[in-house]
Design a protein that fits this description.
8 helices, Arc Repressor Mutant, subunit A, Rna Polymerase Sigma Factor, Chain: A, mainly alpha, globular, RNA_pol_sigma_r3/r4-like, WH-like_DNA-bd_sf
């Protein structure tokens, strides 16, 4: 499939960069998709669809071997796999317990407040973590996030709103627990 993807790019530099991305992450992407779909054929479809989405936004991909790129790619393939799963089962939602959070996060040790906030974010459901990551870490617009996750822009705004509300609730609970 790599030659097909490369044919979609202009410039030797982009082709080399995409080839490195492909070689670096294709096995991880397949693993993440297969864990969700439990079917190798559908997992391959999810990986293929994800690579096509990445090609559409390839100008936004920075350094290949960094945490930000890995996070972006895992988020993309996970959401594509979830969408395929939902299509297969003809359900509008999938229980979050069935989907493992497959991305490893590096500890944030810049300041105690950031560590506290990071732990609170990890307690959020995956759909909220994803939009927060894409919005505030990857710095995508709501429109771009909607396109990547194959949802409406209004859904992105609502998930961001709900994620912030839940974060406030988690932080308030932890703060009141620390006081007692």
């Amino acid at each position: 499939m790599l030659p097909i993807y490369l044919a979609m790019l202009d410039g030797e530099e982009d082709k080399n960069k995409f080839e490195l991305l492909y070689v670096t992450y294709r096995k991880l992407m397949f693993y993440v998709a297969n864990r969700i779909l439990n079917d190798e054929r559908f997992a391959e479809d999810a990986v293929h669809q994800t690579f096509l989405k990445i090609l559409e936004n390839f100008d936004k991909v920075g350094e290949i071997s960094c945490h930000k790129t890995k996070s972006y790619i895992v988020t993309m393939v996970r959401n594509t796999a979830i969408n395929l799963y939902n299509q297969r089962k003809r359900h509008t939602t999938i229980p979050l317990e069935d989907v493992e959070y497959c991305i490893t996060t590096e500890p944030i040790s810049v300041a105690e407040d950031l560590d506290h906030l990071a732990r609170a974010v990890l307690k959020l459901p995956v759909i909220y973590k994803d939009v927060l990551t894409l919005k505030y870490v990857q710095e995508f617009s709501n429109e771009e996030i909607a396109k990547m996750l194959d949802i409406y822009e209004t859904t992105v705004r609502k998930r961001l709103e709900r994620a912030k509300r839940r974060l406030e609730e988690i932080l308030e609970r932890e703060e009141s627990a620390d006081v007692n």
